[in-house]
Amino acid sequence: MIFPSPSKFNMYTMFKLPAAWLTGVRLKKIDAESAEVSVKHRWINQNPFKSMFWAVQGMAAELATGALVIGYINHSGKKISMLVASNNAAFTKKAKGRIRFICNDGDKINTAIDKAIETGEGQTCWMKAIGTNSEGIQVSEFNFEWTVKLKG
Questions:
Q1: Beta-carbon contacts of residue 24 (< 8 Å; ≥ 6 apart)
Q2: 28 falls within a domain
Q3: Residue 67's domain spans which residues?
């Protein structure tokens, strides 16, 4: 399985997802099973309550899931569109300091992409990213419903 290096992927975000890049969202690790994205609470990404703005957490969580989607699409060698159809989130603690979002759903999106290629029909796949602080305490959980479909 070939996935882009985190440094190459982060260069991609600088040009294609500038809001995520400017707020400090960075891919740290990616492999066939999981992706890890990190973002540090700073002035540029805070809310009035002195914690990380929910939308910045959402960008980091979406990138943790989306990096896996992009990796498996690239590996397939096919032209496949990807889109978030739906999402939901829960917040359990103020996000301060460095927050890590980890998605362990590589197998789910791999199966959905394989099925889209096999059947020629669009597929959906729910993927979860959990955000934890430096103490390992969960601060938020995001779920994204990705749709994948062969182009043309």
A1: 39, 40, 42, 44, 45, 56
A2: yes
A3: 6-150
Q: Are 56 and 33 in contact (CB under 8 A)?
A: no
Distance CA 69, CA 111 (A): 11
Dist. CA 140–CA 118, nearest whole Å = 35
Domain count, the chain: 1
Residue 36 lies in a domain: yes
Contact 35, 103 (CB under 8 A): yes
Rg (CA), the chain: 15
Beta strands in 31-112 (DSSP E): 35-40, 80-91, 98-103
Rounded to whole angstroms, how far apart are CA atoms 64 and 119?
27
**Interval 23-55: pLDDT, tens:** 999 999 999 999 999 999 999 999 999 999 999
User: How far, in whole angstroms, is CA 56 from its chain's centroid?
Assistant: 12
- Exposure string (b/e) for 110-122, b if CB count within 10 Å is 16 or more? bebbeebeeeeeb
What CATH code is carried by the domain that includes residue 129?
3.10.129.10
pTM: 0.95
Q: Kindly state whether residue 1 falls inside one of the protein's structural domains.
A: no
Structure tokens at 104: 């362990």
